[in-house]
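Bug: token stream looks shifted between consecutive jobs. Job 1:
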Amino acid sequence: MIIHVIDTETTGLDPTTDRVVEIAAVEMFYDPTEGSVVGGFRSNSILVNPHRPISFEAMGVHHIIDSDVANAPDLEEALGLVLPANVDLLAAHNARFDRDMLPTLKEKRWIDTYRCALHVWPEAPSFKNAVLYYWRGLPRPSGVAPHRALFDAVLTTALLVEMLKERSLDDLLRLSTKAAVLRKVGFGKHFGMAWTDVPTDYLRWGEGQDFDPDVKFTIKHELARRRAG
């Protein structure tokens, strides 16, 4: 079985208006009968013409500028150069973002290493892929440029290998869509505070807000814990 671990760089963060400027994929060979990763890894990356300007904020992250992609292939052509036509199983860190940016792949099976990490390694100091990578004691990658799609795909591949040592592939697919209890608040006036320390009146207010599903689940879980206590 082949898992294609991917990452994208984009013109910005809004899937409704922004587009891909680079895509990378790493082929990972997994033996489901043995429950282990086998063989080596093949990787590829390609620039993509988004047919719109790259935001300065995005340039400041990946350092890809408009002239770099002016003669690059369109997204569908680029996808054909980095992924096989019959691709079935994909993995990405924060897969929801990449899935939204790649609508033709939206219905494929996806492993989200970010969401899996929330469940598998809840004690991690952060759930960014680079933080998780070094927290797991993995060696610094060589031959790839930081902040680019291939660099992040390589990090995510290494994280997926680590996860598969602890959980089955089916477990990771299930956890990729399962809500998680978050440890710390990631926004607003209580940023950085443990959810267990957040005032109850704020939690009650948060119940009625249109928050991320994990935030909603965490608020519900914490309020239930306090009522039970």
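Job 2, same session, no restart:
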Amino acid sequence: MVRVLHVNSSPRSNNSHSLTLAEEFLTAYQESHSDVEVDTLNLFTEDLPGFGVHAAEAKMATFFGQQHSDDQREAWTATRRVFDRFAAADVYLFNVPMWNHGVPYMLKQWIDIITQPGWAFGFDPAQGYSGLMSGKRAVVLYSSGVYADGAPASYGTDFLTPYFEDWLNFVGITDYQAIKLFGQVLDPDAALNAEKALKQVRELASNF
């Protein structure tokens, strides 16, 4: 069985371009793969734990090989539950809209929860960081309203794709493919390009 974790980082439901692409991918993927289990994580409705004082101190205690206090242990246990759901998947599907030229804040919170030493990454003083999530595969479906590749700087800057793809590589997910549907607000051919993106998604899902 192939376990797919779909991480939806858009709150816009049926009005979301990135979510529309993701749903198209899932439909085509399940049609062409007989043994698939999909777990959908909606970051804007999921009750994610905060990553405050106790969780941050637990992270540093872990990093330096120290014991956790009771408060730290409780926070770390809640954090681990979120990570375990992430780690259980074989394939990741991310739909990621651009917010203020970067990632949505709930996606950043989720990343900060799961990206922990000894879980998602390792560290060696002589060698540096190493990702621990190797062997996983990912599809990333990006969207933006105004920003488009090649547009003048007055239309925004892409901090989204470099950040997110750097994170994938950091945790060891190096086998990923991405499709971008950018600039829908100002694109005179927005509907046509949206349909082209859906076609790309269907083709990717069938051959992934």
